[in-house]
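Students often ask why inverse folding is considered easier than folding. One informal answer: many sequences map to the same fold, so there is more than one right answer. In these notes we will look at a single instance of the problem. The structure comes first.
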């Protein structure tokens, strides 16, 4: 009997969580031997994870020097979030005419799964259930090219492999945002639908590079 492949450890996400949690500062050099010890991983796996984070611009690779924590480009992130908000709002609007009672029941179940993850889940499960809510909604949009582009931009606009929130308050605000989107969709008001999606994306602490320090103030 063939053995099932072992699930790949989300090491890049673990390192990104440590960076965003304040374990490493912007510009700080990341010594691979220290990361190996901290995360209990091999040098090969650490280097692969850092290469993944470099593609996301979470860390910066300097030839012949190594990797250091990148300084977020606030302007670029802001511009990408604007584009993302436009695309996802349009995806939600085009999905609106296709939503029936069964669709709303499914979306409400996805929103409830995110709330359960907030109460008792890990950062990975919170990220996964949050994205599942949005992906389910956009799954009803008829223009698949639009949805694919929206998801691609969403991925490019994030510095982290996971959606990460700086506080429980920020998590709860995201859950409230799901509720506002659902209310707008049930009301069938296109203007309100677009506004709720845009606000959920642009105002979320999970989409900002330096919300940890702000959350402590």
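Output (designed amino acids):
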């Amino acid at each position: 009997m063939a053995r099932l492949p072992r699930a790949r450890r989300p090491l890049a996400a673990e390192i990104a969580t440590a960076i965003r949690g304040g374990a490493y500062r912007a510009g700080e050099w990341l010594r691979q031997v220290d990361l190996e010890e901290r995360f209990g991983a091999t040098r090969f796996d650490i280097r692969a994870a850092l290469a993944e984070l470099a593609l996301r611009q979470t860390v910066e690779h300097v030839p012949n020097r190594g990797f250091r924590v990148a300084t977020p480009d606030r302007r670029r992130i802001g511009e990408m979030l604007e584009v993302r908000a436009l695309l996802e709002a349009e995806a939600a609007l085009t999905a609106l005419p296709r939503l029936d009672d069964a669709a709303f029941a499914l979306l409400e179940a996805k929103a409830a799964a995110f709330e359960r993850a907030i109460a008792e889940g890990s950062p990975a499960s919170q990220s996964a259930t949050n994205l599942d809510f949005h992906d389910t909604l956009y799954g009803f949009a008829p223009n698949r090219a639009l949805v694919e582009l929206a998801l691609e931009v969403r991925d490019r606009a994030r510095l982290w492999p996971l959606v990460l929130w700086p506080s429980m308050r920020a998590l709860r605000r995201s859950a409230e945002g799901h509720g506002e989107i659902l209310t707008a969709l049930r009301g069938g008001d296109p203007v309100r639908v677009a506004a709720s999606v845009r606000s959920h994306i642009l105002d979320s602490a999970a989409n900002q590079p330096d919300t940890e320090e702000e959350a402590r103030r």
